[in-house]
Automatic annotation (TrEMBL):
One of its GO terms (biological process) is regulation of DNA-templated transcription. Transmembrane segments: none annotated. This is HTH luxR-type domain-containing protein. It comes from Sulfitobacter donghicola DSW-25 = KCTC 12864 = JCM 14565. Residues 1-46 form the HTH luxR-type domain. InterPro entries: Sig_transdc_resp-reg_C-effctor, Tscrpt_reg_LuxR_C, WH-like_DNA-bd_sf. It comes from the Bacteria.
Length: 50
């Protein structure tokens, strides 16, 4: 949706640091180079449904 990290963290009621840790963990588990790559991999694996 194009939200900033601050907006996402606020909507989830977590800190930006926690959000960053969660994103890094997801990227590692998906073997992704960056967040966009992680989203693409998650979509292709059916982990995200649009």
């Amino acid at each position: 949706m194009g939200y900033s990290r601050a907006q996402v963290a606020n909507s989830l009621a977590i800190s930006e640091h926690t959000l960053r840790v969660y994103i890094e963990s997801a990227r590692f588990k998906l073997g992704a180079l960056n967040t966009t790559h992680a989203v693409a991999r998650a979509l292709s694996r059916g982990l995200i449904v649009v």
